[in-house]
Amino acid sequence: MRNIVSAMNKILRRASICIVVLFGVSLSMLAQYKVTGVVIDKSDSRPLADANVLLMPLNQGAVTDEKGQFGIDNVAEGDYRLVVSMVGYKTYKQSVSVKSKGMKSLIISLTADNQSIAEVDIVGEGAEQRLLNKPNMEPVSLETSATKISRIDLVQQGAVTLIDGMKYVPGGLTETRGRKVKQFFSVRGQTYPYPTYSVDGIWQKEFQETAYFLNAANIESIEIVRSGSAILKSLSPLSGVIDVTSRRYQEQETNVIAKYGSMNTFQTGVTHGNSTEKLHYSAGAQLFGTDGPEGRNGQERIINVDGNLDWEINDQLEAGFKLFYLGGSRQLVQPVEPADNKFRKRKEKYDPINTIMVSSRLAYKPNDKLSSELQINFAHRDPQYQNENLSSGDVTKYKETDYEVTINQLNALKLSSTNVLRLGVLYNHWVAPEGKRYYYGNKSDVHTLSGVIVDQQRMGKWLLDAGFRLTQEYYKEWGGFGIEGSGGKFKKVLPIKDEWQSPVWQATAGVTYSANALLSWHANVATGIVTPRKGALNEAGEQPDNEKRTNIDLGLSKKFNNTGQIKLTAFMINRKEAIEFSGSTIELDNGDIIELYTNVDKRNYGVELDARMPLAGSWLSGFANATAMKGETNGASDWVRDDEIPEFIANAGINVLKSKFDGNLYVNYTGAFKNDRFVSKSYLKEFGKAPLGDFYSVDLTAGYTLGKTNNMRFFTEVKNLFDEAFQTVPGFPDFGRMVSLGVNVKL
After folding, report:
1. Given this model, what pLDDT does residue 653 score?
2. Which of 734, 740, 739 is nearest to 167 (CA)?
3. Are 40 and 47 in contact (CB under 8 A)?
4. From 95, 282, 291, 628, which residue has the greatest number of CB atoms within 10 Å?
5. How much helix, strand and coil, in percent to the nearest 5, is found in the chain?
6. What's the pLDDT score for residue 536?
7. Sign of the four-CA dihedral 543, 546, 547, 553
8. DSSP letter at 730?
9. How far apart (Å, rounded) are the C-alpha atoms in residues 202 and 357?
10. C-alpha span between 226 and 526 (Å, rounded)
11. Contact 509, 478 (CB under 8 A)
12. What is the mean pLDDT of each run of 10 residues along the chain (747 residues)?
């Protein structure tokens, strides 16, 4: 049987390669036309470089060169809409008709718009103005340690959720499991604490599970700051931040998608958006489901609904509003060996799941020297957890209800023509009325206060920045912990009431040198304190000590005439008294497992290379990135390798878009690492930590577009093309090859 499976895999590999080759050859034989033009400033007719030109609904585009010129190759005959956008200018729209007789070169004039808030990462005369327009923008010194994933990237990857869209980030690792939180995403080997999330710049306190369900269809972009030096969009824990920007439509568009594939996995949804001169809105609904691997309790049925509204009230005031709702149920996939038997002999699920998130934003800019932004966020989660012991038949149920309110106010003040000061305060109130997971029925009520100050000073080609954030928590009430024997004693421990916790801090400093418009050097250092997760305990039944962490980032960014970019970054993360899983657990009376932590000195260091390049005009492009890193732990006598961190992670992709065909091939390699989480004691005694990683994963998507206006796309997606067997968490193997077919219609 193994020989048959091996032979089939070889045949599939060869067939897949042939399909990709034939696919590319067939594309090159189709007749195509070219859209060319020049973009100029309407006031003085000077050419504008770096303007984004997009042909809708094809999503083919180009960037203007130093002469303001652009060219979009391989465009099929038909009627389209040309959308041109640039920082500091109003978005331009024009209907164009591409015919076999050819078309004249276009001349496009853009009108200045001081309210534009698009992000630019270069040093120049406009550096101060950009911070006034977007006060929560992270320092430019972190530019080489940040990755931005566009909406086009999400479509090409076939991403369904936010987590899907981050799969090919430099140094990124997605741990897929069937436990309480399905997927954890980390960068540079930093698995505790994990990066925090913000949505439209608004920090989220409890968001790990929501990230798995957040619909990619209504995401405009994802920015991942891989360095822990992020200070404006994140509340310390010095481990990076993931900022999600909601989609902002440039014109009326409605999309309907339907997809079906392996394991009875399906997705159906509709999104709609439009914009006027002052108003932008979008709304969407999605239903996702899967039966998961056969016989392993992996069924999911999830619906989410979201909506966004942005209103430019006048030249000084802008308001935004976002709504997100999640509902449904999720079974927790049962693990296999080498997971401990106590995990394999239970059936767990969340039924129902209910999450609602409402956020608002008010931006005020009275003049060119001052701007202020107020953000308010409310989130409420109300899942019902159930655990069935397959040996005894006992069933336990409890709620994990919690809610939080966040108010964040940030100001940018232009002190001089070369200096901008940013000041912010944040307040968060988080309540878990009946306890949360391991709080074992004890109420938690926590207030968090934080303040931040960041200054940026430009000195010719140099840009200096420095920042400081201070955070302190007040426990109105906090469920108590103790692990002396039975977990039932948790109920008897007196809670903490009316008590301030010790403040934690983070300080950063950075410098950027812009040699010219295409080459820049970046350096950033951050240091501060990382506190244990709420409820974390060590083997003595006490809270672990705070971790003292220092991050260093040194980077080089090189652009190539606006057609590509290469980033090279060296990094080091020094962790004194690092908070790490000890390998030990305790089982509560209800069967829940609490992981115990310890403090140990650790450090990670390495280099990252990230390159994005067009390969053949506008129809073929690609990217490649690699992270080589080494993790070390301070052992009894010397530093030893931390084998729980992969030493090498690499990604590469090729994107083809020619006429009505599109194809996208992605490859990920994750190096070997080990872990003892969830592993049985007998396995550990005989084999040690479970081997993980050391795998190649290949994904392929291909589509064909129909319709006079190219409004209907049929596509296929294959995840784990060669059916590689691998694990990123012990006992939770990848589901194997997943094939799906679908259609997307633009109305």
Report:
1. 94
2. 734
3. yes
4. 282
5. 10, 55, 30
6. 73
7. positive
8. T
9. 11
10. 13
11. no
12. 46 47 42 79 76 77 80 79 78 81 77 46 59 87 92 85 91 85 87 83 79 82 90 80 85 91 95 88 93 93 92 92 93 92 90 92 92 94 89 86 93 94 96 76 88 95 95 86 52 75 92 90 93 74 84 93 84 89 69 75 94 79 94 85 93 88 94 90 90 95 84 93 94 94 92
Is the CB of residue 551 less than 8 Å from the CB of residue 571? yes
**What phi and psi, each to the nearest 5 degrees, are found at residue 141?**
-65, -15
Q: What is the pLDDT of residue 236?
A: 64
Please give the class, per CATH, of domain 224-746. Answer: mainly beta
**What residue segments make up the domains of the chain, in order of their start?**
1-30, 35-113, 224-746
Rounded Cα distance between 134 and 97, Å, is 37
Give 373's contacts (C-beta < 8 A, 6+ positions apart): 135, 136, 201, 361, 362, 363, 364, 409, 410, 411
- Say if CB 476 and CB 433 are below 8 A apart: no
CATH class, domain 35-113, is mainly beta
Q: Exposed (0-12), middle (13-18) or buried (19+): which is 708, by Cβ within 10 Å?
A: exposed
The residue written with tokens 């997606």 in the block is 717
What CA–CA distance (Å, rounded) separates 736 from 708?
A: 38
What distance in Å separates the CA atoms of residue 594 and residue 585, rounded to the nearest whole number? Answer: 5
Pairwise CA distance, residues 40 & 568, whole Å: 33
- pLDDT for 467: 96
Please state the φ and ψ torsions of residue 440, each to the nearest 5 degrees: 55, 50
Contact 284, 327 (CB under 8 A): no
CA distance 591 to 386: 11
Site of tokens 């010129």: 69
* Rg (the chain; Cα; Å): 26
Separation between Cα atoms, residue 10 and residue 243, nearest integer Å: 41
- 183-237 per-position pLDDT tens digit: 889 999 887 778 888 888 888 887 877 877 888 888 888 999 999 888 988 776 7
CA distance 325 to 357: 6
Instruction: Find out whether 341 and 683 touch, Cβ atoms under 8 Å.
Output: no
E-strand ranges in 87-218 read 89-98, 106-110, 146-150, 172-176, 183-187, 196-199, 202-204
β-strand pairing of 33-41 with 106-110? parallel
**Measured CA distances, 440 to 163, 493, 501, 673 (Å):** 29, 11, 22, 33
Structure-token pair, residue 349: 């699920």
* DSSP states along 273-339: EEE-SSEEEEEEEEEEEE--STTS---EEEEEEEEEEEEE-SSSEEEEEEEEEEEEEEEEPPP-TTB
Q: How far apart are CA 491 and CA 693, in angstroms?
A: 40
Q: What is the pLDDT of residue 489?
A: 52
- 35-113 and 224-746 have identical folds: no
Q: What is the pLDDT of residue 27?
A: 42
Judge whether 598 and 539 are in contact, CB under 8 Å: yes
> Quick count: other Cβ atoms within 10 Å of Cβ 7?
10
Give the pLDDT of residue 593.
66
Please enumerate in sequence order all residues whose Cβ is within 8 A of that of 39, keeping only pairs 6 or more positions apart, or say none.
47, 48, 51, 53, 64, 68, 70, 84, 86, 108, 109, 110
Instruction: Please answer whether residues 417 and 423 qualify as being in contact, where contact means their C-beta atoms are separated by less than 8 angstroms.
Output: no
Q: In the prediction, which pLDDT does 118 show? A: 34
Angstrom distance (rounded) from CA 173 to CA 175: 6
Element (H, E) at 5: helix 2-28
